[in-house]
Amino acid sequence: MGYTSETTVMFPGKTFKINVVEDVDYLLDLVETDDDVPFWAVLWPAALGMAEYFWQNTAFGGKRILELGAGLGLVGIVAAAKGAEVVQTDFISEALQLAEQNARINGISKIQRVLADWREFPLDERFDLIIGSDILYEPTLHPFLKEIFQNNLKPGGTVVLADPGRDDAKSFISMLQNEGYQTNTVTKEVFETGRRICVSIYFLNKSGG
After folding, report:
1. What tens digit of pLDDT does each residue of 101-118 get?
2. Which residues contact 47 (CB under 8 A, 6 or more apart)?
């Protein structure tokens, strides 16, 4: 995995500690296929935006949440801290190991983790919410995401996706709208190394669901 270092994420009234991969170049040297690119090793602005929104605006009260592309685990950790029952999934086993470590250092113990490929998704249970931050960058995976939403979202449930404004993400959201998903969008500003990044958080509900 390479060496990790601890970063501090500060929200109103709460500080989370998250270990990130310090030497991402080490992981890049190991890449053999597109599936190996270590997107999971970085704390992305979309994850910060969704986590902050959840912390400030949401009490989950035992709702079941499926997190896709959990990465370092921040969003699921915040959701669990706000009362959700969380199942975190990722394609990379090292990501889930680090997400477990990050949950532990923040005093969060009740998160289930499942190694999962969206192309052959192993879970068949349904959830109140399906969430994902910055997971829409690869259009070839969009059909598999849509299938997961269809198969794993409870009737009346909500899909929550955060993205920093990628065109592929906007196209995917438009496709879902055309297929009957009602959308509400919230914008969060995230500051990263002196830059202001606008993160769009999409709340999607299937019409008639």
Report:
1. 999 999 998 899 999 999
2. 71, 72, 74, 75, 133, 134, 162
